[in-house]
Amino acid sequence: MEIVRKISLFVLPCVVFLVAIIIMFGKKNYFSSFLQGAKAGFKGSIALLPSMCALIVSVSMFISSGAERVFASFLAPAFDKIGVPSELFPLILLRPFSGSASIATYEEIISLYGADSFIGICASVIMASSDTVIYVICMYFSATKIRKTRHAFPVALFISFFCVLLSCIVSRLFLNMI
Amino acid sequence: MIGKCFGILCIISVIFAIFTGNLQGLNDGILEGASKSVTTVISLIGIMTFWNGVMQVLMDAGIINKLSKLLKPILKFVFPRAFKENKGANEITACISANILGLSNASTPLALNAIEKLNEDRDSDKATNDMITLAVLGCACFSLIPTTVIAIRIAQGASITYEIIIPVWVVSGICMLLGIILSRIIGKISGDC
Question: How many angstroms separate the CA atoms of A65 and A61, rounded?
């Protein structure tokens, strides 16, 4: 486990090291590439603010009004049976629909229950391993006149459901090991 | 989609708070949420700026092409028809490489290209098996470095930050494999279009 943990610490520095080598010894002026990308990233994250503001307010309302607790407690027996904490319900609900809505929910869950708690780790793994299924599939087929996507939705939705289950199992193992 | 998510959550919350008399909590929620959105976005700006710069260098230096070359022999089995007819194979590998690196800005246009290529000379409104596999992989792809999640965890003062990569690799890897297997099996049973 210690080795795996060390590897995980190496990933990010290795990528940065590789980029530094490219910038130092590359044939082109790669630092201008860096600046160009960084500028796009900066603009992109600033552009997130208006929709994030709306969504974080709505998620915060949903949780602080007590509605989330009531829904979650309805679902708690079923969630308990499959080993998923019911606190994750808003994230599981919104994840397939919208990226910014799920970031907003994820942020709210992390700040409520703690980033290093079982719930926080589960939410992080779900957030990183699954995607906005409905948005992605609609997007991919939008340029063509394909309307019958056959088993694309059932398979993708099943995988994101499976991803939630697996995230909770793996997070539990991970927390026991660390 | 975002508008609908926002609308539904707000309507449910307001009605709920009125019926349970929890208006004080709801008021706090609105104000806290609005100010929290700023801190969330600000905590993301730094890593997003840096990471996008890093990825742009890798992209300009041709790293997507290199990863594509590595992936091509494997993807031959995942997208048999595209590779056999040599239609859209390059776009598919580039798209999946970008997805693995977490370059969603680059992967979506590549996916659209790939699907258009796969759809050339066809007059059906049904998706082919290869298109479906690509769409499933667009939703369930191995995630090498989950930057957004790491950035939010650091901003929230987590002590487990980079180590989150380990469970993410396990889960996203298994989900990707399962996605490929399921979409191939169902495609095989129902026949191609």
Answer: 6
